[in-house]
Amino acid sequence: MLDLRGRPVLFIGGGCETEAKVRSLLEVGAAVTLISPHPHPGLEPLLEDGKGPRFRWLRRGYRRGDLEGFQLCFAHPRERWLHPLIAQEARERGVWLNTVDDPAHCDFILPAVHRQGALIIAVSTSGVAPALGVRIRQELAKKYGPEYKEFLQILHAYRTIVKETFPHDFQARKAAWYRMMDSPALELVARGETEEAREVLLRALHQSGLEGVSS
User: Fold this and answer.
1) What is the pTM of this model?
2) Which candidate, 9, 3, 7, places its Cα nearest to that of 72?
3) CATH number at residue 134
4) Are 73 and 62 in contact (CB under 8 A)?
5) What are the tens digits of pLDDT across the range 142-191?
6) Are residues 102 and 137 in the same domain?
7) Residue (of 134, 10, 19, 23) closest to 75 by Cα position
């Protein structure tokens, strides 16, 4: 859940997941520096986007001192014996480190993530069995489909409406949100009946009472 837009992130790569993980970092807007002496054909087309370099690639192995100037680092070299050396430098410099498939040297681990627009569901097994996290994510993906992305796009506009309707009453705003969530609007969105869903949400917003509020 970190906002990495424009943030300098170091990726010490070479391992089999280097391309996928660097792509993921670029997708969230991180300013990536990749250190890897190995070929990564899938990353070559991403080096420039017509406006200049998208990320920096130092085509060599890790050297002590490479973590200077970074707050976040991912280590996925082919030579796993480098992990303790990278971890030592990270500790000395106060850099948050993720060593891929090596929880003992990690400051943080990456969950399996399912995304539908603004909806983000993360699953973690605390590094014990990442494959189980992936399977659970796949099951969640079946339940939380594209309709949630569209539903959240609609709800985004209602944040202002709810605040303007109940400007000074937090409990009333809370009750309104739960009424809207408990309405059939999501089912209507899933059926492609978007305008009907908007109308249902408006009616739920203006209903009286506190029904549907969770403690």
Assistant:
1) 0.75
2) 9
3) 3.30.160
4) no
5) 999 999 999 999 999 999 999 999 999 999 999 999 999 999 999 999 99
6) no
7) 10
Q: Looking at the structure, do residues 162 and 97 belong to the same domain, yes or no? A: no
> Which residues are bridge partners to 61 per DSSP?
none
In this structure, the answer to whether residues 51 and 128 fall within a common structural domain is no
Q: How far is CA 79 from CA 37, 43, 125, 130, 157, in A?
A: 12, 20, 25, 21, 50
What's the rounded Cα separation, in Å, for the pair 132 and 135?
Answer: 5
Answer yes or no: are the C-beta atoms of 35 and 56 closer than 8 Å. Answer: no
Which residues lie across from 3 on neighbouring strands?
Answer: none
Q: Above pLDDT 90, what percent of the chain?
A: 83
For residue 69, is pLDDT > 70?
yes
Give whole-number Cα distances, 203 to 63, 171, 174, 185, 206, in Å.
62, 18, 15, 11, 5
Domain that holds residue 182: 146-206
